[in-house]
Amino acid sequence: MTQTVETLFDEGLERYKAGEDPELLIPVFKEVCDRAPKTSSAWTCLSWLYLLTEKPGKAYDTAQKAVKLNPQDPQARVNLSLAMLEAGKKGVREHIELTQQIIMVAAELREEVEHNIQDGLVRKPGWKSLERVKAWLFD
After folding, report:
1. How do the pLDDT tens digits run along the chain, 139 residues long?
2. At CB < 8 A and 24+ separation, what contacts does 67-70 make?
3. Domain spanning 5-138 has what CATH number?
4. pTM
5. Where are the domains of the chain?
């Protein structure tokens, strides 16, 4: 029996939270994106996994889709900013400024972004681009 997209997504998130290797989760979130291409949260998760596994080009493409689907998602914009920094692309400031505006008015989104940044620094210690984004958003 085929899993629903929601079940697949939720199980992928639980596996991530349990500390599973991001490389192993990429196919799960790719399937979710293939089956539900308008689900911005799936694209956001997939771009994060690509960032954690040193694939900035793929992270950039997937983060762009996430931002296009949900321009008000600060995590999607953080991921896009990170992918741009990692790939040496210009235009990061615009996404950082929009993220700052969003998290300024939405405390729960601010907390989520802070939590995700801390998680990223634990999973990928010394991640220079993420340290820069953290400083821009919270220092």
Report:
1. 568 999 999 999 999 999 999 999 999 999 999 999 999 999 999 999 999 999 999 999 999 999 999 999 999 999 999 999 999 999 999 999 999 999 999 999 999 999 999 999 999 999 999 999 999 999 8
2. 67/95, 69/38, 69/39, 69/40, 69/43, 70/40, 70/41
3. 1.25.40.10
4. 0.95
5. 5-138
